[in-house]
Design a protein that fits this description.
Strand content of chain A: 25-35%
Order of helices and strands of chain A: EHHEEEHEEHEHHHEHEHEEHEHEEHEH
Largest interface: A-B, 32 and 28 residues
Largest sheet of chain B: none
Number of strands of chain A: 15
Structural class of chain B: mainly alpha
Radius of gyration of chain B: 19 Å
CATH superfamily of the largest domain in chain A: P-loop containing nucleotide triphosphate hydrolases
Order of helices and strands of chain B: HHHHHHHHHH
Helix content of chain A: 25-40%
Oligomer: heterodimer
Strand content of chain B: under 5%
Shape of chain B: globular
Distance between the termini of chain B: 27 Å
Strand order of the largest sheet of chain A: 7-8-9-4-10-11
Distance between the termini of chain A: 27 Å
CATH architecture of the largest domain in chain A: 3-Layer(aba) Sandwich
Number of domains of chain A: 2
CATH topology of the largest domain in chain A: Rossmann fold
Mean pLDDT of chain B: 91
Number of strands of chain B: 0
Low-confidence stretches of chain B: none
Number of domains of chain B: 1
Structural class of chain A: alpha/beta
Largest sheet of chain A: 6 strands, mixed
Low-confidence stretches of chain A: 1-17
Number of helices of chain B: 10
Helix content of chain B: over 70%
């Protein structure tokens, strides 16, 4: 798995990387304007074999980035390349499998017919298309249900069919826009296993999502977007370290409230404590250490802890924080 | 993997989806209306100058000027516009088929369908009209084929250019074509049906179809009108291919 920024990008010229670049999706100073609105802003990165998670809140620019990578959009500035091909070109489409986030199909077809049609549109003969279709339908767990008309398929089944059509021509690059949305936990596990298997085979997979936990289960390498920029990238641990020092609001319901407030106020990572009847609102810079400290205080001073929860733990708050740290 | 095979699949897929679409149902109404009118007013009449004139005027003013553009519009805009509206065009554009060939496939799937419906229904009308129709069929067929070709190309241009191409094309067909085509002076040269009507009036002249009042409708020579229709078709299709090849369709997903 590989995610690199411009600074590394310009420096890597080794033979090893030259060989690897045959399987790279690269963005070189890519900016995309929608009229006066900027969709993505001066993005440089490259995505190599393995699974890379593309995280961001709604409107962060994930879909624009995926559309640029899939050649649906052309960058206003910069270049998007799939191996040595411009992402817009027909040649790039040979290497690319794309699962869009929209839920539209040729509704009159069955899942099997749809995937087979996509195989035939990739240039396979009828026999080859049938064989490939059966293979990928089995891979996504739809072999026994693909005879149903798409109009009557559940959201989860349609997601699997979308994945199957993206895989049917065996591309090395998979761009999956929110592939797990609407899939039940069991199905999600199966799809995750499939994607991990494909990654082990050396495929380059870029998966977008606005749910951190989804990506966490899939990938150790992430690109986090906000406001059209990549605000964090690297391994999950590296991004977690950035998030660990984010000031958090924590609500604690405990008795005696004032005693706990006084004890917490002495703790150096606590930036403020507010008492609201039997509830404390605590602002801390280091939530992980803070939780451990509270546990210790509770045991040592016999405090009755009824509830403790983070008030701003959502993805949006995380993205906002990471964005603030960037120019 | 073969590009030719992929392209042929796209032609067949587009043809099949258009054939079993709401467009087919939509055009069957005006076509059936024309046949019913012919059945009622011209059924198996013996050939006479007056009968030929009445039948020809119906074919020129209603069939060629209204029904043919509606047929071309229904399929011409749906071949690309339908995919855009259904948000399924993305599945085609993600396949390794060059965009110019994608549009050419869409066009080649649409043309036989529209031609089949136009020529087939015209032939049926002529059969219903008896002797008069049999005289009219070979006279007006070239003009109708040329007009169909021009309209199909033009509406493909609309489809790749406008988000709601069917509505724009409908406004164009119902208002611009009828309005411009019947305006005095040079303005009518902006309407496809002007060239088609010029060819049809010239074709029917020998069998008793009177030329229209030159103050309102000054016919072009047949050769000029035919080349104009072919020119509109070629220019429209080429422009559509260029636009489709270069354009970002942000509304695909």
């Amino acid at each position: 798995m590989q995610v690199a920024h411009t600074s590394q990008f310009d420096q890597d010229h080794s033979a090893h990387h030259a060989a690897e670049s045959r399987m790279l999706l690269s963005f070189e100073r890519v900016t995309k304007f929608y009229g006066p609105v900027i969709g993505v802003n001066n993005i440089s990165c490259r995505v190599g074999p393995g699974i890379t998670g593309l995280l961001g809140a709604n409107g962060a620019g994930k879909s624009t980035l995926i559309k640029l990578a899939s050649g649906q959009l052309r960058p206003s500035q910069g270049m998007v390349r799939i191996a040595e091909h411009d992402a817009w070109s027909t040649a790039a489409k040979h290497h690319l499998g794309y699962s869009p986030d929209v839920n539209s199909f040729y509704e009159e077809m069955t899942g099997r017919e749809f995937v087979e049609t996509m195989a035939r549109l990739s240039g396979y003969s009828r026999r080859e298309a049938r064989e490939r279709t059966e293979f990928v339908l089995a891979e996504v767990g739809m072999a026994d249900r693909a005879g149903r008309r798409l109009a009557g398929c559940s959201h989860g089944m349609r997601q699997r069919i979308k994945l199957a059509q993206a895989l049917v021509h065996d591309p090395w690059l998979l761009l999956l826009d929110e592939p797990l949305s609407g899939i039940d936990p069991g199905g999600r596990r199966e799809i995750n296993e499939l994607l991990l298997r494909l990654a082990e085979q050396g495929k380059t997979i870029l998966v977008s999502s606005h749910i951190l936990v989804e990506i966490e289960q899939l990938s150790n390498s992430i690109l986090m977007m906000s406001g059209g920029r990549i605000v964090a990238s690297g391994t999950l641990t590296e991004v977690r370290n950035l998030m660990q020092f984010r000031p958090s609001m924590i609500e604690i319901v405990a008795e005696p409230t004032r005693r706990l407030a006084a004890l917490l106020a002495e703790y150096p990572d606590v930036q403020g404590v507010e008492v609201r009847e039997s509830t404390l609102i605590v602002r801390t810079r280091n939530p992980l250490d803070f939780f451990a400290h509270v546990a210790e205080l509770v045991c040592r001073h016999g405090i009755e802890l009824r509830r403790m929860q983070t008030l701003d733990g959502g993805a949006d708050a995380v993205f906002d924080y990471l964005q603030q740290g960037r120019p | 993997m073969s590009l030719l095979r992929a392209w042929a699949t796209l032609v067949f897929l587009t043809f099949r989806r258009l054939l079993w679409s709401a467009s087919t149902l939509m055009v069957l109404f005006p076509l059936a209306g024309c046949m019913l009118f012919v059945l009622r007013r011209h059924h198996n009449r013996d050939f006479s100058t007056n009968e030929f004139r009445n039948f020809s005027e119906f074919m020129i003013l209603v069939f060629a000027s209204f029904v043919v553009p509606i047929c071309a519009l229904a399929f011409g805009t749906a071949s690309v516009g339908g995919d855009r509206e259904d948000r399924t065009l993305v599945f085609v554009l993600m396949r390794p088929i060059p965009r110019p060939l994608v549009l050419l496939a869409k066009f080649l799937a649409t043309l036989p369908l529209v031609l089949g419906l136009v020529v087939g229904s015209f032939w049926l009308c002529c059969q219903l009209a008896g002797e008069t129709g049999q005289v009219a069929f070979p006279l007006y067929l070239p003009a109708l084929v040329n007009m169909t070709l021009a309209y199909v190309c033009l509406f493909h241009l609309f489809a790749v250019t406008f988000r709601h191409s069917t509505i724009i094309a409908l406004i164009y067909a119902l208002f611009m074509e009828l309005l411009l085509g019947n305006m005095p002076g040079i303005v009518k040269r902006a309407a496809v049906n002007y060239y088609g009507r010029s060819i049809m009036y010239a074709a029917g002249k020998e069998d008793g179809l009177p030329s229209p009042d030159p103050r309102w409708f000054e016919s072009l020579p047949v050769e000029t009108a035919s080349w104009a229709l072919i020119g509109i078709a070629v220019a429209g299709l080429l422009l559509a291919i260029v636009i489709f090849s270069r354009r970002e369709y942000r509304d695909l997903t």
